[in-house]
Structure prediction request, 264 residues.
Amino acid sequence: MKEPLSAARRKEFEDFAAAIADGARTLSLPRFRRPVNVSLKGDASPVTEVDRGVEAMLRERIEAAWPMHGVLGEEYGAEHTDAEYVWSIDPIDGTRSFISGWPLWGTLIALLRHGRPVLGVLDMPALNERWIGHVGVGTTMNEESCRTSDCTSLDRATLYTTTPDMFTPDEWARFDRTSKAAYARRFGGDCYGYGMLASGHIDAVIESNLMPYDYLAIAPVVEAAGGVMTDWEGRPLDLHSGSRVVAAATADLHAALIHSLASD
Prediction:
């Protein structure tokens, strides 16, 4: 049986995560809406020196403080991900937003224990907004407690996704069917939509074509705020989950989304 973390240990991890998120802001925010060099990675997604610089700093801070912990990052890969504790880093979630001057980009930092995310930081430097979620404890936005909405039915839900381009044709058919049954569907936001979900402003997010570092920090933020976040089959998210996620304000709404997304 896994021994639960003490309150002191939880606070130590949370304070550290907040401190390195502060450090990331000092690197990323001064470069926002300034000229940056952009190159394309092997998957044709853009990357800047800011992405790489932020991740390098975060990895250095983690290694110095917790040398026995593993790290998974978007730009520099995985190290010791079989460790009890693993940090997941997305230095600039929404690089396309960053390079186009759109403020809906963020830094995502997660701590996993035994492969499952237990602590998440969703930081939005350009908006000066930060969500911190600790499973079993709660979620805050700028140090104030926040909760998901009480929406339980799809026909009352406001549902977001970042872009239609993230779906395969089959996935789009399933998303289209589901989202058209919602009260409203909207596009855009990158990681910001999940913060809006955790704060009760929207009710659901459905996305695909993601990597674990895109959602591992978000899951604790949503879940500790009272929501549910899984893959499209309803399985909990971990280091080895696939590319598709569903986040909902309540268990009933989540069940309705999973049912609607199921293949015909």
The CA atoms of residues 144 and 222 lie 15 Å apart. The longest helix spans residues 7-28. The longest strand covers residues 85-93. The chain has two domains: 7-146, 154-261.
